[in-house]
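The records we work with from here on pair a chain with its fold. These numbers are not coordinates but entries in a learned vocabulary of local backbone shapes. To see the layout at work, look at the sequence and tokens printed below.
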Amino acid sequence: MSDPFLKFIPAAARLWALGLMVALGGAALPAAPVVGEILPLHEAGGMDIHHINTGEGSAALLVLPDQTTLLVDCGSTQGVVRPARFKSPPKPDGSRLPGEWVARYVKKVHPRGAAAPVDYGVVSHFHGDHLAGLPEFFRHVRITVLLDRGWPDYGHPLPFTGGGAGMYRGALAEQVKQHGMKIDRFRGGVTDQIVLRHAPERYRNFEVRHLAVNGEAWTGEGTTMRRRVGPGAALTENALCAAMRVRYGAFDYFTGGDLLGASDKPDIPASRDVESAIAWVTGPVDVMTLNHHGNHDATSPFFLSVLQPRVCIAQVWDAQQVDPIVLGRLRSGKIAPGPRDIFMTNGEWEGRDEHVIRVFGDEVGRKHIEDLKAIASRQGHVVVRVAPGGASYSVIVLVDNDESLRIRSVHGPYESR
């Protein structure tokens, strides 16, 4: 629970304050989010999913019902070369590296205080816009358990090599040596690798199910996995992404990194389509992050028709994200019944529109620019706030040009399905 006056109390005293209110017969009522105000404290028994915008790739912090914390990816595109203003500018600004910005955000919203470690980290796959911010993040925030698709040898099924691999593995080794971080391979099909660590007995209607990893898909039976990307297939890192479904009561959330979907191009191997392989076992969800940042090779019509998300979130860092084809699918009532609210972390930077027109052509590009103006939000940190028990949720967009956590817009509440 939270109360407006608690935001002025140091974190260490909050539990005492709550106890005092209970002792005096009072009730701590949750503060409602208000546009222009600071994001209220995480509510006990609720769940927050923070999609953190640095302008440099994907990063999301999940604060689970018992205050267990989970970081999914921490990207950086510092080494990516694109034409001027094709990439989004760094947020809040370029004075710090993306990993530090993510760490500072995490410290501000961590329910157990700024000095507390993050309980779990998941690296969805080995691309810089999903992991290259971690070495800097580790300088400021510790992670207790980290999961990725390659530990311990980073060989099978697709070797992770090169300079980026060396920096990443070196950072992991340092964290193990200095802080005792545990590392494990992300296992498909299981629900016992990411669990509530602080009060699991209170929330037995919560689970994190691993749906896909390394080209294998969960079958829906026990923890059995079936290989989708077969031996001899042309492997791509995106097809090997780790994907998860987070379930809390009636609420379901899907995240799958850059997982790929069906392609209508005859030269693209069908085995790359892992979306279709996990669609039925994932089932309908309330909120999903768009696979591959909303690029054309993901969020296929079939995948969307099965998951039928009410809310879609695109973690955007360049001008071709979200693709006009994908936006058309999301808005089509013939693919999946609506309505559907779409949120982008980035979409309003100066110079973006000219690149949209250059990439997609004059007619398609200009129409796409106008279509994007109709979505729920095109800029800011996107926070999904799930009510205790999981029966409903809201989406809160925060300003990203400073660290104030000030609310830009509030959407919902939505009823979980």
Notes: The CA atoms of residues 316 and 363 lie 22 Å apart.
